[in-house]
Automatic annotation (TrEMBL):
Gene: LOC108616237
Protein family (similarity comment): Belongs to the group II decarboxylase family.
InterPro entries: Aromatic_deC, PyrdxlP-dep_de-COase, PyrdxlP-dep_Trfase, PyrdxlP-dep_Trfase_major, Pyridoxal-P_BS
Keyword presence, DNA damage: no
Species this chain originates from: Drosophila arizonae (Fruit fly)
Protein name, entry field: Tyrosine decarboxylase isoform X1
Obligatory cofactor(s): pyridoxal 5'-phosphate
Keywords: Decarboxylase, Lyase, Pyridoxal phosphate
Pfam families: Pyridoxal_deC
Length: 368
């Protein structure tokens, strides 16, 4: 396919997407297929010769679409909202066309700087404290776009684990790290997303799942008593994951109570998972639901839910970016550049090295 045909096929694809979204209500929400349906409709090997694009699009409609669950359908009410919009789609299209891999400032300065700026925009709109904003004078925090809320929880738990192990090794220099690791305990509510449990599995740490109150809200006294019990058992509390807008019922943990309780445990990292409800705090009348955020060490939300930014786009802010990056820095010579000390390198803010230009679609949705 050359640029001439790409222009033609690109316009056809935009028309196909528009028609798909405009007539989506006429389709079934969920497919009437069984596992393995597609295997019987496609060849066992990739074709040796290129196929005509019209035939490819015919196969999309005849073979792929019958197996699609239509998340943008007006009658789709499963799981969670998966927002989409034309500005976001166009931003993703531009990012795909540019095709940069923005793992460092030098790898693509605009990719890094737009992400920093747009995350500050969104953080201000939500009502996050100034210490979460990268460009605020005196701030050591900042925001980053991750793949999903699960990744946000994982990287913050990794950072909290690294901080806890560093402190314990200083206190017990002759104790093996594996033994110290076995003492670490994380906490969350029974209503928290399952990604907290998965993060604990990956981090090889213990997780204590706590009972919420009658309103499905985790309370400060419950957290405090659990941590005191565990300390008496020789365990080391190091991480608490709270939720604003739980998966099961959109319940809100009591951040203010938990934050006050954690004053007794100053080395414990407090994370706030607002993947579901966080975008709503843009509305002035809902900002009181963010009460207690000043106690948090990190906060995440998903613009790909309510903010009509197509997946993947999960935003994470941290109070102290050095505490995050120090747990994730791997700095080989071939990735170093002359501005490493003056610029943000987002490869140190998460698990993957390679990063897409995702800030374009978020920026497009915020300004268009």
């Amino acid at each position: 396919m050359d640029s001439t045909e790409f222009r033609k096929r690109g316009m056809e694809m935009v028309e196909y997407i528009c028609n798909y979204l405009e007539t989506l209500g006429e389709r079934r929400v969920t497919p009437s297929v069984e596992p393995g349906y597609l295997r019987h409709l496609l060849p066992t090997e990739a074709p040796q010769e290129p196929e005509d694009w019209d035939q490819i699009m015919s196969d999309v409609e005849d073979k792929i679409m019958p197996g699609v669950t239509h998340w943008q359908h007006p009658r789709f009410h499963a799981y969670f909202p998966a927002g989409n919009s034309f500005p976001s789609i166009l931003g993703d299209m531009l990012g795909d066309g540019i095709g940069c891999i923005g793992f460092s400032w030098a790898a693509s300065p605009a990719c890094t700087e737009l992400e920093t700026i747009v995350l500050d925009w969104l953080g201000k709109a939500i009502g996050l404290p100034d210490h979460f904003l990268a460009l605020k004078e005196g701030s050591t925090g900042g925001g980053v776009i991750q793949t999903s809320a699960s990744e946000c929880v994982l990287v913050t738990m990794l950072a909290a684990r690294a901080q806890a192990l560093k402190r314990l090794k200083a206190q017990h220099p002759f104790v093996e790290e594996g033994h110290l690791l076995s003492k670490l305990m994380a906490y969350c509510s029974k209503e928290a997303h399952s990604c907290v449990e998965k993060a604990a599995m990956i981090c090889f740490v213990k997780l204590r799942i706590l009972e919420p109150d009658e309103n499905a809200s985790l309370r400060g006294q419950t957290v405090g008593e659990a941590m005191e019990e565990d300390e008496l058992q020789g365990l080391v509390p190091f991480f608490v994951s709270t939720t604003l807008g739980t998966t099961g019922s959109c319940a809100f943990d009591n951040l203010t109570e938990i934050g006050n309780e954690l004053k007794k445990f100053p080395c414990v990292w407090l994370h706030v998972d607002a993947a579901y409800a966080g975008n709503s705090f843009i509305c002035p009348e809902l900002k009181p639901l963010l009460k207690g955020i000043e106690y948090a060490d990190s906060f995440n939300t998903n613009p790909n839910k309510w903010l009509l930014t197509n997946f993947d786009c999960s935003t994470l802010w941290v109070r102290d970016r050095i505490r995050l990056t120090s747990a994730l820095v791997v700095d080989p010579l071939y990735l170093k550049h002359g501005y490493s000390d003056a610029a943000i390198d987002y490869r140190h803010w998460g698990v993957p090295l390679s990063r897409r230009f995702r800030s374009l679609k978020l920026c497009a949705k915020l300004v268009a």
